[in-house]
């Protein structure tokens, strides 16, 4: 990475799960670098959903390095998720034809609920399958899976955690970290965001700002995907020996049921 820049540049790891992201700094110039990021990044930049893509370079070893504009700003806090700007940006993402076209050209096919249910049943280990909340959750997913199929799918971020929303100094909102993006039912994103951050009595108003009505069908789809995502989180934390986090999500599963 260093040989892309002169010796005057300071390059430090940016953290994250993949270890492929870096910050580069030289005097007043700052860049966010990523190794082998998806070609999807260019469309996200063009749509104004992530900070501006400055350049892309292919290395001799085949790696592709992207450099994005460094944005001074802050992550959103949990309380910020009720802002109109969050609803509007998520609506823009879910409505974007360029984003959908790019993911389709990259070979992504829509995630069907039956596929997700099958993956969950395969991944859950035998210990978890004996937990009452897990048993009830899987039963719920099986019972309702045929009722939540949706023909119209959109680009979904699939991890709308408040830490992934960046508000710049000039009040521009971005949604970052697109490694898990899928073509799927937007209820995946909406359910996670509403269940985690918005009091139920305010769902109607939040969705009005987003641009849709809160129907019984949407309620069911959101609940289905939130339970599915929670089961996936429980198994992931268990596989990483993070038992405290696993227990926290098991308790949350009880609340959902």
From TrEMBL:
Database matches in SUPFAM superfamilies: Protein kinase-like (PK-like)
InterPro entries according to UniProt: Aminoglycoside_PTrfase (IPR002575), CcrZ_PhaseVar_Mediator (IPR052077), Kinase-like_dom_sf (IPR011009)
Record flagged with keyword Transferase: yes
Coiled-coil stretches noted in the UniProt entry, renumbered to this chain: none
Keyword line: Transferase
Molecular functions per Gene Ontology: transferase activity
Residue stretches making up the Aminoglycoside phosphotransferase domain: 14-223
Name of the protein in question: Phosphotransferase
Organism annotation: Sporosarcina globispora (Bacillus globisporus)
């Amino acid at each position: 990475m260093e040989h892309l820049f002169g010796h005057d540049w300071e390059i430090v790891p940016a953290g994250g799960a993949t270890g492929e992201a870096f910050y580069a700094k030289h005097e007043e110039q700052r860049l966010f670098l990523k190794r082998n990021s998806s070609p999807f990044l260019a469309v996200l930049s063009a749509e104004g959903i992530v900070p501006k893509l400055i350049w892309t370079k292919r290395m001799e070893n085949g790696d592709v390095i992207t450099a994005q504009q460094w944005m001074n700003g802050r992550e959103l806090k949990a309380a910020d998720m009720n802002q109109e700007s969050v609803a509007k940006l998520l609506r823009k993402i879910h409505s974007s034809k360029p984003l959908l076209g790019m993911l389709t050209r990259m070979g992504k096919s829509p995630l069907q609920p039956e596929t997700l249910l099958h993956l969950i049943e395969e991944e859950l280990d035998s210990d978890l399958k004996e937990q009452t909340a897990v048993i009830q959750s899987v039963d719920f997913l099986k019972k309702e899976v045929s009722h939540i199929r949706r023909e119209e799918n959109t680009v979904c971020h699939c991890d709308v955690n408040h830490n992934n929303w960046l508000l710049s100094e000039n009040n521009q909102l971005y949604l970052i970290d697109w490694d898990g993006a899928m073509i799927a039912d937007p209820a995946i994103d909406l359910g996670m965001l509403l269940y985690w951050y918005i009091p139920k009595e305010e769902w109607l108003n939040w969705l009005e700002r987003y641009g849709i009505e809160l129907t019984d069908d949407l309620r069911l789809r959101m609940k289905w995907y939130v339970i599915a995502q929670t089961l996936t989180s429980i198994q992931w934390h268990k596989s990483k020996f993070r038992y405290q986090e696993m227990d926290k999500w098991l308790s949350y599963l009880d609340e959902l049921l």
